[in-house]
Amino acid sequence: MILYRTMDGWVVEADGRLHAIDGRSLDELLAEGDFDAKIRQALRGTAAEKLDEAKLLAPVGSQEVWAAGVTYLRSRVARMEESKEAGGGNFYDRVYAAERPELFYKAQAHKVVGYGGAVALRADAKWTVPEPELVLVIDARGKIVGYTIGNDMSSRDIEGENPLYLPQAKIYDGSCAMGPGILVRSEPLATETRITLAITRAGAEQFAGETTLQQMKRRPDELVEWLYRDQTFRAGCFLFTGTGIVPPESFTLERGDLIRIGIDGIGMLANPVA
Length: 274
What we know:
19% of the residues lie in helices and 35% in strands. The protein is an alpha+beta fold. The chain folds into two domains: 2-56, no CATH class; 60-272, Fumarylacetoacetate hydrolase, domain 2, CATH 3.90.850.10. A hairpin with a 5-residue loop joins strand 9 (132-138) and strand 10. Helix 3 (73-82) packs antiparallel against helix 4. The two termini are 32 Å apart.
């Protein structure tokens, strides 16, 4: 069952059909608990025969969006490489091995870009890459109730200059994309679940890569437990879980590029670069 947010409201794809949802908001559904059951109760018949991708919006209500860093070995290596001249490589090595994960605020809900929306490059950055990630959908009680696809746009030169610049490297208009919908599922995804990334420029592939959840060092429920320590999320929240696919140092995004991120069982998130 996949939950989509469209210009016409929330719809659910289940059993090969689209179903409209009554007036319940995502905030209400994540605040109340029993997310799966509440959605099924809210179904009110068949909607359109086919999902109109042009009408898709980011599948988010008023939730905060957070992110975890250095959860894959590939990410650890990349962060150490980008910050070696500034002497910050040791920080990322220590975070990867530490009990406490790196967690940071990523975006306000109204700044999240959905399927087909444009992501952006910082004007003062020279080296920007997408970071394809599994995103956890978490209810108010700290329970993982779903999954979506995320693109954590990152200005690697800014972050590499000084680890304290991470908020500027990660948080700006057009730096966060999620979609196309939410896979409603409380059980963990299989470790064999693939994450893929493809970047095209003028129709030609510039970079492609893939990884699996098996390569992620930290468990999703472990990240959630740390995030919810001494924090309250009354309408639930979203949590990016880190990336295991990093383009080479010679690559940077350019305006007009198209980024496609796929995750088995969820779908494909596609965004042009503005």
